[in-house]
Amino acid sequence: MKSGSLINQYVLLLSIFLLAQGIWGLFSETVFALLTSNLTHAIIHISLGTTGIVLAIRHRAYQFSIFLGIVLLVAGILYLVPATTPIVASLLNLNNMGAVINVLAGSFALLAAAADDVYIIEKSKG
Fold it and tell me: How far apart are CA 8 and CA 115, in angstroms?
């Protein structure tokens, strides 16, 4: 299914950010002076960013937006739950700011997918 332009634009912008953060994270544990990273975190961001850019350019970002939203939300929420914070922090070197950004970006990705559903339905009605 072809995605609407809004979701493709959002996924493209978020994916460029993820790719930049991932590349920067390969060389530094601190990215954009606020976020922390490690090799695993950087590789995940590079993979997600590259995939998102390709799909957004091809106007196929809808399902990826749902996947990305779930992944970012789960990572952010797991960090914010005190019992799982040490696990996520040790695996991904995620910090508080990164967790909050993950929750926000994941929420927006899911909202963009929902808005795209409405757009496609309304467009098909005429």
Answer: 12
pTM: 0.89
Helix (H, G, I), strand (E, B) or coil at 59: coil
Q: How many residues does the chain have?
A: 126
Bridge-based pairing state of the strands 35-36 and 30-31? antiparallel
Query: Which token pair is 115?
Result: 């808005």
Write out the two tokens for 111.
Answer: 């909202």
Q: Would you state the structure tokens that stand for residue 108, as one six-digit string? A: 């927006």
Residue 47's closest CA among 73, 79, 72, 15? 15
> Tell me: the pLDDT tens digits for 67-110?
999 999 999 999 999 999 999 999 999 999 999 999 999 999 99
Distant-in-sequence, close-in-space partners of 41: CB < 8 Å, separation ≥ 6:
22, 25, 92, 93, 94
**What single-letter amino acid sits at 73?**
L
